[in-house]
Amino acid sequence: MSSNTFNLHDLEYQRIQTVLTRMQKELRAQLVLLINRSGQPIVISGPAENIDCTALASLAAANLAATDGLANIVGEREFSVLVHQGRQRSLFISDLLKRFSLVLVFDASASSGLVRYKCKRTILLLEEIIQEFQRKIEKEEPVTGIPQFTDEELEELLR
């Protein structure tokens, strides 16, 4: 699996969707996204009213990348969690396996401690699902789409 592509099978997609939906309901979050580090949404949970999910995903990924640079400048290896507090809405962005990010849009009046706790638990579940999926993919035979024939079979077909 290349680092730029990540194609989930339906089962894993549904498992991730279930985890995100549960967290969204528990925190009464407006929106939860799993994105890749290049800013592409992978799984979205929530009504996303008045929010451009594509732009949010792209800017969240850029924000995390910029924060990696800031961490480097001050001698930290990384800042893996970002919280942006607003008057009405807040954002939680967290690294996930150095390839993905969890993005949460939630009510600014929510307890930031509870948000951090639930997100940390959710990230552990998501990491487990993704790592299981990666192990499963690595075991599968690559499908080329081209049937494989022996020389004798090709000669027979071409006659």
Describe the fold and architecture.
The structure is a single chain. The chain is an alpha+beta fold. It has four helices and five strands. β3 (81-85) and β4 (89-96) form a beta hairpin. Helix content is 47%, strand content 20%. α1 runs antiparallel to α3 (112-139). The chain is elongated, with a radius of gyration of 20 Å. The protein has one domain: Beta-Lactamase (2-Layer Sandwich). It has helices spanning 10-27, 53-73, 112-139, 151-158; strands at 31-36, 41-45, 81-85, 89-96, 100-107. The model has no long low-confidence stretch (mean pLDDT 87).
Q: Summary?
A:
With about 160 residues, the chain is α+β, with helices and mostly antiparallel strands. It has four helices and five strands. It has a five-stranded antiparallel β-sheet with strand order 2-1-5-4-3, with helices on both faces.
